[in-house]
Structure formats: structure tokens, C-alpha cells
Amino acid sequence: MKHLKSIIFAGIISVFIFTSCEETKEVIDNLTPALTEAEVVEGLKSALIVSTDTSVSQVSALNGYFGDPLIKILMPEEAAVITENIEMLPFGQDYVDEMVLKMNRAAEDAAGEAAEVFWSAITEMTISDAFNILNGDDNAATQYLIDHTYDQLQSLYQPKVNSSLEKPLVEGVSANESWDFLTTNYNEVANSLIGQLAGLTPVNVPLDEYVATKALDGLFVKIAEEEKQIRHDPLARVNDILKRVFGD
């Protein structure tokens, strides 16, 4: 009987201790200060800075675009007729492959300039923007940049891309020169009687606009990847404010 009383007493004590621990945890949790508006804004700005800096570093490296199947820049869709009928031209598939390489090299060369362009959009983030991003989807911060800066980025980025397209990046020939050579020769065939009878359509695509758009799209893809990691992977939260805002 004495032994039974001891067991019952121990059980009561255990329940009391367990309950006390839960209550203590609740008290501690309540003592943890809630995020302030300033912290949310700072955290979201930090997330965007980390995401954009990392992404720009990745895509501006050698093969940053060319070696990544997800963002590799291919020939314009309007130029598909060239690749489909490349045997009609004297230089063949090798020239198209070289053109693709040059476009990607131009994008990689220009990408290093992109980081500064993002700063104004990040610094202009409002409290409302920050909370919408915090409570939004995994790509909410990336979408904020797209919605608020894409047109501006395009106009600022395109001249940088064009400058890169003018550089003799491969075998002393620039991407613009290669594109002009490729389309001029093809358009001569397309505009000829034989080409017209074959239903060929001339290709007139501004290369700098096309590459700038594809380069920016690819960059935003990488930024979205980085944002998702910060949201879900504690190891990707590289500073205290990110840990505080995105911590569980």
C-alpha cells in the first residue's frame, strides 16, 4: 500500500512538473518580443540584397548563363526558321551554336552591372510592401522587384547588354556582328524568289532587346531560387535579421 501511494505521488508530481514546463515555455514565448515594423522592413531588404547579390554573382561568372540549362539564352523564337532551314545557308549549324555562345557570354559580361540597379527599388520598399512580402508566396520578394522595376531595369540594362554584344568576345567577332551576318544572309534567301516560294519569313529581331529581356528573366529566376532558400533553409539566413524575420 505504501508502495502504491509512492507511485501515485510520483505521478502527480510528474503531471505538475510537465504542466509547469509547458506553462514556463508559454511564459518564455510571450516574453519574446514581436517583430517591429522596422525589423520586418530591414529583414526583407536584407533578403533582397542577399538574393540579388548572390544571383548576380552566379550569372555573371563564366558559363553563368551558358552552363545553366534553366536560364541559357537560345536563339529567338522568331529565328527558329533559321535553325530549321540552316542547311540552306553556307555556314551551317556550327555558326548558330557559336551565336548562342556569344549571346550568353554577352549576358554574363553585362550581368555584373545589374546589382547597382536593384538598390533603388530595395531602398524604396514601404512598410506595406514589406508585410505583403513577408506574408506572401515563396517568390513574393522577387515578384515585388519584377512589378516595381522591370521596365526601368530593361531600359537601364539594355545599353549595358548592347555594349557587351559589341565586344569581340569570341574569335574577335562580336555577337552583334555575328547576328547581322546570320540574319542578313538568311534574309537574302528568304526575300529571294526561292525563299518566297518556300514560304520563308525574314527575321528582324533587335538582338540587344532580346538578350536583355532573356538575361533579366534568367536573373529573376535565380533571385527567386535564392529567396525560396532564405524562406525555407535556416542555413541560407546569413545574418541575424534574416534569422529573426524568417526564423521558425
Report low-confidence residues grouped into runs of 5 or more.
7-21, 24-32
Distance between the termini: 49 Å
The total count of helices amounts to 11
* Percent of sequence in beta strands: under 5%
**Number of DSSP strand runs:** 0
Element pattern in H and E: HHHHHHHHHHH
What is the rounded Rg? 28 Å
Helix content: over 70%
Q: Mean pLDDT, as a whole number?
A: 81
What does the oligomeric state look like here?
Answer: single chain
Q: How would you classify the helix and strand content by structural class?
A: mainly alpha
Characterize the main sheet. Answer: none
Shape designation: elongated
Question: Can you walk me through this structure?
Answer:
The chain contains eleven helices and no strands. With 248 residues, it is mainly alpha-helical. It is 72% helix and 0% strand. About 10% of the residues have low confidence. It is elongated, with a radius of gyration of 28 Å. Helix 4 packs across helix 10.
Summary keywords:
mainly alpha, 248 residues
Q: Would you spell out the secondary-structure blueprint of this structure?
A:
Layout: H1 2-31, H2 37-60, H3 80-84, H4 92-111, H5 114-123, H6 127-134, H7 140-166, H8 175-191, H9 193-197, H10 207-232, H11 240-246
Helix pairs in contact: 2-4, 2-5, 2-6, 2-10, 2-11, 4-7, 4-8, 4-10, 5-7, 7-10
In short:
By secondary structure, the chain is mostly helical.
